[in-house]
Design a protein that fits this description.
Distance between the termini of chain B: 33 Å
CATH topology of chain A: MetI-like fold
Distance between the termini of chain A: 43 Å
CATH superfamily of chain A: MetI-like
Number of strands of chain A: 0
Number of domains of chain A: 1
Strand content of chain B: 35-45%
Shape of chain A: globular
Oligomer: heterodimer
CATH class of the largest domain in chain B: Alpha Beta
Helix content of chain B: 10-25%
Helix content of chain A: over 70%
Largest interface: A-B, 20 and 24 residues
Shape of chain B: globular
Largest sheet of chain A: none
Order of helices and strands of chain B: EEEHEEEHHHHEHEHEEHHEEEEEEEEHEE
CATH superfamily of the largest domain in chain B: P-loop containing nucleotide triphosphate hydrolases
Largest sheet of chain B: 6 strands, mixed
Order of helices and strands of chain A: HHHHHHHHHHH
Strand order of the largest sheet of chain B: 6-7-8-3-9-10
Structural class of chain B: alpha+beta
Number of helices of chain A: 11
CATH architecture of the largest domain in chain B: 3-Layer(aba) Sandwich
Structural class of chain A: mainly alpha
Number of helices of chain B: 10
């Protein structure tokens, strides 16, 4: 393996950090949200689902634009940054995490919601007739039964975060060592005609995407076999 | 009946287009069958008892414990000491058979010590010892349903609710499970409310029956009483029969016969040898009982019992269902007899008249003591 300059390693490290933190945060946020979307009978449920899905349809520049305003000095992001004496969350790694969480949310919520919905009422009714409180039924029945959906959601969320470009460029500013991730680094290398570096990163992304999709297919097959 | 010894359930309200107005009181012991055609609301009643469905106008008191009342008290399902067996076994696919069985078992040792139903006992009773480490996906339909029953029992319920546990199974598997249900009834002092639309299951299992039709209860009481009530659909059905509880009073191994005493008489039945004093459930079909004014002379019919006509009801134009009570005084168990109108008139039969009931065939339901 050739030794790469920090210009290449640092964006790779940052990307992995960003995607890992984003995915973990998403699992914590998206799982209860998906549970509510799958089980609630509230009339505004589908409106909430549509809002969660918006980032899937919006141009990344539009999402990025609003996020930039929200994270900036005059938005709520600025207020939060004020807590530790900073002026803004835009162009920071924390800002990238927040933006990634929002833009990758639908890719995590949707499979988990589908998995919860596919369980149906019966296993939870059975659990209730066996003295399981709603909390215990969630942890010991709903969550394990939905685990393929959680896994799919985590993989998709991770992969989508790694691949995000427009939003990141808008709110991150492509600052080396702080907010320059793989996707923006490729853009930068291409702009400066550094084809070799662009090729290394782009090739790495292709290999990564292939590995993600293949492992998902194989995992799904294994789950299907185990439950057959 | 003392409230501590009954199951009291009354539910009224509508669910979508369906309106339910059903109430009954049954003894908190033995098997109570909820019987009626598909769509009559049996499952809804059972779900209401379990608290899986909530109708505001409902009352549910089991063995003195209030699970729901009309003042808004409503115990959530997981706080009701019940077991529920669904039509489909509904085992947890992510857990082994053993962990399915243990899912509802009290987790603290103290509770397990007081538990009335022990793990080993259930596993043995239901014949699932060899399956414990398997995944539910690798079980047959009958095995799954047995595990589901065991799982419900191990949660130490005070009431077992069963929603047509046999209906999703084929003939052979039904025959495989039925003996387990009978063992259950006979060995555990656990009241069971059992939904079925099969009269054969009622005749084999039930002690008490609640008849339902279109969301309403049209009759409730001991099985014998409802079977012989001509006002209810059971007695006038083509295959009407009564189920009687008999005690073996003599055996004749030379001819392979048992003589069982029932209230007001005794019946001789071809059957496998069994000990005197054991209980057996007997089924007598209305079409197998004929009536005579005089005791017949020599006849191939073994069972001729003096009885008294209680009532009659014409069915299907030219046929009549007659209810007779055994014994010269007519104080014993009731039988049904299906006659033609011509015979009724030729013999000059009338209500209150003493007759001789000739029973052509008596079937013995496999029952108490046959297994285990």
């Amino acid at each position: 393996m050739p030794s790469f300059p920090p210009e290449i390693w640092v964006p790779i490290r940052l990307t992995i950090e960003l995607a890992t933190i984003t995915t973990l945060s998403l699992l914590i946020v998206a799982t209860p949200l998906a549970w509510w979307l799958a089980r609630s009978r509230a009339w505004f449920k589908e409106a909430a689902a549509a809002i969660v899905s918006l980032p899937m349809v919006l141009p990344p520049t539009v999402l990025g634009f609003y996020l930039l305003i929200a994270l900036g000095p005059d938005g709520p992001g600025g207020a939060i940054a004020g807590l530790w004496g900073a002026r803004t969350l835009a162009f920071t790694f924390t800002g990238l995490v927040i933006g990634s969480i929002i833009s990758s949310m639908p890719f995590v919520v949707q499979p988990i919601r589908n998995a919860f919905a596919a369980i149906g009422d019966r296993p939870l009714e059975v659990a209730a007739t066996l003295r399981a409180s709603p909390r215990r039924a969630f942890w010991t029945v709903a969550l394990p039964l939905a685990s393929p959906g959680l896994l799919t959601g985590a993989v998709l969320g991770f992969a989508h975060t790694v691949g995000e470009f427009g939003v990141i460029l808008m709110i991150g500013g492509n600052i080396p060592g702080r907010t320059r991730v793989m996707s923006t680094a490729i853009f930068d290398f291409v702009e400066t005609m550094r084809w070799r570096e662009a090729n290394i990163l782009a090739g790495g992304m292709v290999a990564f995407a292939f590995a993600v999709i293949l492992s998902m297919i194989l995992l799904e097959k294994r789950f299907a076999r185990a439950r057959a | 009946m003392n409230q501590d010894e009954t199951i009291q359930a009354t539910f009224k309200g509508s669910l979508g287009k369906f309106s339910l107005d059903a109430g009954f009181t049954a003894p908190a012991k033995g098997v109570t069958a909820l019987f009626g055609p598909s769509g009559c609301g049996k499952t809804t009643v059972l779900r209401c008892i379990a608290g899986l469905q909530r109708l505001a106008d409902g009352l549910c008191v089991v063995g003195g414990d209030v699970w729901q009342d009309r003042n808004g008290a409503f115990l959530p399902t997981y706080q009701r000491p019940l077991g529920y067996v669904f039509q489909e076994a509904s085992l947890f696919p992510h857990l082994s058979v053993r962990r399915n069985l243990m899912f509802g078992a009290p987790r603290r040792d103290g509770d397990a010590g007081r538990g009335r139903i022990a793990f080993d006992e259930v596993v043995e009773l239901l014949g699932v010892t060899a399956l414990l480490n398997r995944s539910p996906a690798k079980l047959s339909g009958g095995e799954r349903q047995r595990v589901a029953i065991g799982r419900a029992l191990l949660s130490q319920p005070k009431l077992l609710l069963m929603d047509e546990p046999l209906s999703a199974l084929d003939r052979a598997t039904k025959d495989e499970i039925m003996p387990f249900l009978e063992r259950l009834r006979d060995r555990l002092a656990l009241p069971i409310v059992y939904i079925t639309h099969s009269i054969a299951e009622v005749e084999r299992l039930a002690d008490h029956i609640v008849l339902m039709e279109k969301g309403r209860v049209i009759g409730a009481g001991p099985l014998e009483d409802l079977q012989s009530d001509p006002a209810l659909p059971l007695a006038v059905a083509r295959d009407a029969a009564v189920s009687l509880d008999g005690v073996i009073e003599a055996r004749d191994d030379r001819y392979g016969l048992l003589t069982l005493s029932v209230r007001g008489g005794s019946l001789t039945v071809p059957a496998a040898p069994a000990a005197v004093g054991e209980h057996r459930r007997i089924r007598v079909i209305a079409g197998d009982v004929s009536l005579a004014r005089e005791p017949p002379g020599l006849s191939s019919i073994l069972n001729v019992l003096p009885a008294r006509i209680v009532s009659m009801k014409p069915v299907d134009g030219n046929e009549i269902v007659v209810v007779v009570a055994l014994g010269v005084d007519g104080a014993g168990a009731r039988l049904l007899s299906r006659l033609t109108r011509k015979s009724w008139e030729l013999l000059g039969l009338a209500e209150g008249l003493g007759v001789h009931a000739q029973v052509k065939a008596v079937a013995l339901a496999p029952g108490r003591g046959d297994f285990g």
